[in-house]
Amino acid sequence: MPFKHNAARRHRIGRMKFKVTNWPEYEAGLRRRGSLTLWLTPEALAMWLAPRRTTLVASLVIPI
Q1: Global pTM?
Q2: What is d(CA 19, CA 16) in angstroms, rounded to the nearest whole number?
Q3: Which keywords does this chain's UniProt record carry (predicted)?
Q4: Using H for helix, E for strand and C for coil, what is the string for the chain?
Q5: 24 and 18 in contact (C-beta within 8 Å)?
Q6: Are 32 and 26 in contact (CB under 8 A)?
Q7: Per-residue pLDDT tens over the stretch 3-25
Q8: CA-CA distance, 5 to 10, in Å (whole number)?
Q9: In the structure, what pLDDT confidence band is assigned to residue 64 with cuts at 50, 70 and 90?
Q10: What is the pLDDT of residue 61?
């Protein structure tokens, strides 16, 4: 079968591994990315979750 042709060799190919060799340059690059801190107000946090359902889920299914 064609999909078994290379089965013996398929899993021997390792993943490429990246190793940081210049730590000061790497850390400077991380600092240049900036901060992605997200500030939420207490009002936004209070509205974060959807209100609880009062109906049964089974009643929402449309019969075909």
Answers
A1: 0.30
A2: 10
A3: Plasmid
A4: CHHHCCHHHHCCCCCCCCCCCCHHHHHHHHHHHCCCCCCCCHHHHHCCCCCCCCCCHHHHCCCC
A5: no
A6: no
A7: 677 777 676 667 667 788 899 99
A8: 9
A9: low
A10: 64
